Amino acid sequence: MSKANHCPCGTKKNYSVCCEPIHNNHELAITPELLMRSRYSAHVKQLIQYIIDTYHPSCHAEEFRDGIEESIELDWRKLKVVSSYLSETSDNEGFVSFKATYSENGQLHQLKEHSRFLKENRKWYYVNGEIE
Q1: Rounded to an integer, what distance in angstroms lies between the CA atom of residue 126 and that of residue 32?
Q2: Into how many domains does the chain fold?
Q3: CATH of the domain at 127
Q4: Which tens digits make up the pLDDT trace of 32-85?
Q5: Residue 119: enclosing H or E segment and its boundaries?
Q6: In terms of pTM, does the model score above 0.85?
Q7: Domain range spanning residue 72?
């Protein structure tokens, strides 16, 4: 398999068996980490509607479409998942810490975030994150 076919999320799997099926069916992201990885890949692939659809409904992401569109314009380079776990009090809440590297105006930057996810109706959703 050529590197060009690797999924952007960093698993070294082919995109067609990693994030692409999730991009086509959000319900296949059966853990917060899988959803987070698929959202990162969606930024790389510029799948704006998928990113909006995977925000928790309480976030009203459609209202922030312009800002989300700007975020996908960045040159996303690499994702590293630091930790991923479910809440001790609920199987419907999970957290993922990650580092995402991107290039903007020729400069490399790193986004470090501790993200919160909620599961509703068999689907995980991104709720919010704390930038570290």
Answers
A1: 8
A2: 1
A3: 3.10.450.50
A4: 999 999 999 999 999 999 999 999 999 999 999 999 999 999 999 999 999 999
A5: strand 107-120
A6: yes
A7: 3-131
